[in-house]
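Notes to self after the Tuesday call (sharing in case useful).
The group wants a holo model before anyone commits to mutagenesis around the pocket. I volunteered. Ligand is iron/sulfur cluster. Logging inputs and output together so the record is complete.
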Amino acid sequence: VRLVHDMRRAGKAPEEIESFFRDKYFADGEKYKLAVRTADNQAPVLALNTPRSYSLYISIPFCPSRCSYCSFVSRTTAESGSLIEPYVQALCRELAEISALARRNRLRLETVYIGGGTPTAVSAAQLRTLMQAVRDNFDVPAVREYTVEAGRPDCTTPEKLAVIKEYGATRISINPQTLSDEVLAAIGRRHTAQDVLDCFAQARRLGHGNINMDLIAGLPLDTPARFAQTLQGVLALAPENITVHTLTLKRASNLVIEHAPNAYGDVARMLDSCALLGENGYEPYYLYRQKGTLQNLENTGYTRPGYAGLYNVFIMEEVHTILSAGAGGSTKLVGPDGHIRRIFNHKYPLEYIERFDVVQARKQGVDDFYAKYADLDPETAR
Ligand code: SF4
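Result:
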């Protein structure tokens, strides 16, 4: 997708871009079309970006249980529940610091993304505390998009969905991964497909009008037929976004550690059923590929017209700075000239809490980075 953008910026004709994809990268026609359509759908989103734009990412590294394919640092609430309260308190402090940092550097907040882990793994009261801190420190009504991942129905209650709505989030994510109970059990999820459907219905009842649903192709015990059924089940709900990932085997995941048998099915055939998305009016708007994905396939976000997830495009295309709060957070500074620098928070919740001052000292790097661009673009901060 980036190549398409770059070549278009360089004035290349569509035929030149197509032959470059075909002859240099041996991309087949369908993959080429996917890249071009994705680039087309991103164009209006990228046009929103300014040299002083940034997005805010807030990490909640807790989950109700560990999925077998997960390599993230997330802790289960059973093993680390006592850390959640001090973690939320530290996060609120960091949000105040980030807000000051953004103002000093005259940055404009475009999107907020609370992800994880599973943000709804914390209590409704803790979620309220956190979202109140976002409201206190940032101009929430002025942001273009505010996403909260309500990924798993085994911890997403109507009360938490109501808090998310009350505090101004404009987009949520409810992630079935699959609608097969057998596959859900095989990946360590302690909920059923019906729980996902119920959670979705509750979210709609509470007024959530922009919902993403994540799916994974290639999960253990899944088959092309089952995957197509999952897709049809999700399409019947008509969420605004559907993101189709390909299973990635990561070294730190239980799937790899436990040497689970290779029962991943024909992933390419599973992705073939994504044609259903186009037939139902969904368009690709971002895509990326990770190291270690099955059959070297991609992850693609699809959207109904007008609902492209802005944060996803901004982060994937690396067009602006992402200031990150919380354990595992990676702040990515993107200069107006394309220069990129990263600053990492501590990886685990306990070290984030106990060595909070070290994290904050590192953020001095944000001031240093933007000092180089002091004369550029006098836009004021929101
Ligand atoms: S919900 Fe996501 S972050 Fe949590 S264990 Fe599962 S894959 Fe990992």
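Two things stood out.
The two ends are 31 Å apart (CA to CA).
The chain is about 45% helix and 20% strand.
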